[in-house]
Amino acid sequence: MKEERKMEALYDYLLKNFEPNKPIFLSDVKTSGINYANIRKQMKNLADSGKIKRFDSGIYFLTTKTIFKSGSELSPDDVLEYKYLLSDNKRCGYISGLMFFNQLGLSTQLPMVYEVVSNKATKDRRETTLGGSKVVVRRPKVTVNDGNYKILQFLDLLRDIDMYSEVTGDSLKEKLYWYMDKSGLTVNEMKPYFSYYPDKLYKNLVETGVIFNGIFA
Fold it and tell me: 71: burial class by Cβ within 10 Å (0-12, 13-18, 19+)?
């Protein structure tokens, strides 16, 4: 009965402190009177009982009812965001690589690997898995924050444009200009970050026409 009371107390704590269908990392579960080892045990018990669901090692979530018997599922994108892109609700990383090209409509290829650049990275490049998906985590060239992550993400894309983009010529320029306008990005804001990138960035800035955006407006 004592173990059941602990489990129910932890479940009540989760209901009060976490939103349904959002990742719950064991490291974020902090409740008085229960140490980490016991929290880990009780979270497993809650998952075994069906009160919560396990997404991956150390990652759980509160499920909601759906038309399917198993209930709702957790989006890998949400887990990726919580784990690598945000820290205390502040931006600390961004999506990079083929996935970002796909999001901008520059590639029809569905990425087999999630690529992220994050302040949380401990190495220049590390491969890991998340919910069965492969994730490549890279350390940023400069600390990522709310004010610069879109700039860095866009410059990463320009650096790799000849590698991933299936769109070329005027169509490519139109899509890049559209994204710059939508995101409020200007060449002047990007300039301080140019030195963090290889020389090919300058070549791609010119060939895509990005360097001229706004000059003839």
Answer: middle
What residues contact 208, with CB distance under 8 A and at least 6 apart?
158, 161, 172, 173, 176
Report the relative pairing of strands 113-118 and 133-138 from DSSP bridges.
parallel
215-103-63 Cα angle (round to 5): 140
- The conformation of residue 40, written as its DSSP 8-state character, comes to H
Mean predicted lDDT score pLDDT of the chain: 91
Q: How far is CA 139 from the centre of its chain?
A: 14
What is the pTM (predicted TM-score) of this model?
A: 0.85
Enumerate residues 6+ apart whose C-beta is below 8 A from 49: 7
Phi and psi (nearest 5°) for 107? -150, 140
In this structure, what token pair is assigned to residue 139?
Answer: 């350390």
Residue 94: both structure tokens together: 């961004």
Indicate the Cα dihedral angle 90, 95, 96, 99, nearest 10°.
-170
Q: What is the mean pLDDT of residues 30-41?
A: 84
